[in-house]
Structure formats: structure tokens, C-alpha cells
Amino acid sequence: MKIKLVNARLSFADLFTPKSINGGNLKFSGTFIASDDTKIKFTKENGEEVMVSHTRLKDVGDKVLSEKFGKIPPKVDNWLYNKADGSTTRGAFTNSEGEYWAGFTADTFYVSAGKKEADCPNGELHVIDQRCQKVEANSGLIHSGVYVDAVIDVYAHDGGSGKCLTGQLIGVQLRSAGEALGSAPMNAADEFEEIEIEVDEDPNF
């Protein structure tokens, strides 16, 4: 089921360089921090397009699970939509010192989605700016901390640990700038200045 996540804060952004986890397939991925301003947009069975709070992702997930398995399984590994305090499928979203990652608190809900490099046209994820123009990896426009919209295909499947709910990341669009999370992105051009060249006026040189 296709949904559009609207106005979420991007974190752990691997949108331009795919990564492999534990030797798995190379994937582009992102984590999307949900706030009170974050909505989801989707089309109902009657064709009506609706935009509601991100909290309705729970209902979307239940619908997808029911369609896949005939009913909602009693236990589901929900890799799509979780709470940072660890009360859902994933453990607490904290670093090795037990501190929440930048941009997260115990009450933060977040969405996770990724896409295999092999499934992307030309091996690139669809990433665009507000004018629907392609964003280049070295532009510095999109980084962890900016606000984005993301199109995600929500699906259910049988995983190694049981029934799973997952999101495939279809594409990401920049919505607005935001303070960088973690290390701020660096623009190499800002780190240099012109250097005066000394000219040797000795004609015998």
C-alpha cells in the first residue's frame, strides 16, 4: 500500500550511497522523525485521497497485514513504525552510552524505510528538491536534519523471525531546511579563501 509521509525530519540519511548491514544487500535508506506536524497521505479503497496524522500508520499497517495474512497476526515484527523508547518492535533508539540519538526522545515516533540498490533505476534512489529537480549527492541540500516528504510502499511478508511489516522507500522530496543532526554537513568551498600569489619581479629569474 503506497503512502506519502508528509513533513517528517530526516535522520540517518543514506539516500545517495547504499549501505550493507551484516553482509546483506546494498540499500538506500532513511529514518523519518514524526512530529505533531507530520501527516500521512494515502488513497482509500473508494478512491478518496486523505491526509491524516502519522499515528494512523498503525491502522494502515493493520490493513496491510490483514490483506496479506487474512487476519492480523498475534505477533508482528513492525520494522516500519516504531517508538524510540523501545516499547515497540525495535529496541530503544539510543547510542552505546544509553543517550537518545540527536533529534529523538523517549516519546519520538519514527518511520524506517529502505530500497535495494538493485531495485533502483540506474542504481540511484529518486531524490528531488521542492521544484521536483534531481538532487545531486554533493549538493549539500539534503542531509540528516532537513524536513522531507517520502513515498513509501508498505507491505507485509514472512521474515526469518515471523510475520513482518516493512516499508520500501520509493523516493524523497526536500520540503524545508533544518538544523543538521549530528555532525553538520561541510561544504568544501566554504573552507577556503583566495591566496595572494607572490610574483617574483627579478627579470633574471
Key descriptive features of the protein:
10 strands, 205 residues, mainly beta, 1 helix
Notes on the structure:
There is one protein chain. The chain has 205 residues and is mainly beta. Helices cover 6% and strands 39% of the residues. It is built from 1 helix and 10 strands; from the N terminus they run ββββαββββββ. The longest helix has 13 residues. The mean pLDDT is 91.
In short:
The chain is mainly beta. It has 1 helix and 10 strands, in the order ββββαββββββ. The protein has one helix at residues 57-69, and strands at 2-19, 27-34, 39-43, 49-53, 77-78, 81-83, 109-116, 126-128, 147-159, 162-176.
From the alpha carbons, calculate the radius of gyration and give it in angstroms. Answer: 21 Å
The percent range for strand residues is: 35-45%
**Mean pLDDT, rounded to whole units?**
91
User: Shape, please?
Assistant: elongated
First-last Cα distance: 74 Å
Q: What is the string of helix and strand elements?
A: EEEEHEEEEEE
Oligomer: single chain
Helical percentage: under 10%
Q: Strand pairing plus helix content: what structural class?
A: mainly beta
Largest sheet properties: 10 strands, mixed
In DSSP terms (H or I, runs of 4 or more residues), the helix count works out at 1
Number of strands: 10
Q: Uncertain runs with pLDDT below 50, 5 residues or more?
A: none
